[in-house]
Description:
With 162 residues, the chain is α/β, with parallel strands linked by helices.
Amino acid sequence: MIIGVISDTHIPDAASQIPEAILKAFRHVDMIAHAGDLINLEAVEQLKKVCPKVIAVAGNMDKQDVCSVYPAKQIFQVGVFKIGLMHGCGAPANLINVLQDAFKFDAPDLIIFGHSHRPFNERVGGILFFNPGSATDKITAEYNSYGLIEITDQIKAQVIRI
Length: 162
């Protein structure tokens, strides 16, 4: 299974739509995970046009219309792996600690998150933490990016610059 990962789209504030390079890449995935700060439900509609299976969470910048549809945290299973999805909150320097605390009773193998707008792909305490960076906003990052996660008998994640 291949999961396309996106976060911090901030549509329409940072961009009018998801970048075409991402939409083109996501035509070949089995599922898309959006790690929050959609701002507008249109972001998910754009993603569903290229891959019908989209899972998302609300972020700290999302308004009530997004928060009423998407929870702040989700856990789902792919094969033998348990995956946590959450936007994150607070200071970016403390983000991994916030996520560890949020999922401490869930025992995930992978935590997908956003919030910092900076890509992150590292194992911490046996859990793979993956942030694809922001698809549209470079306020705290040098480039825009998204992610691909391949799940077989192991988890392989990569950040892709646009």
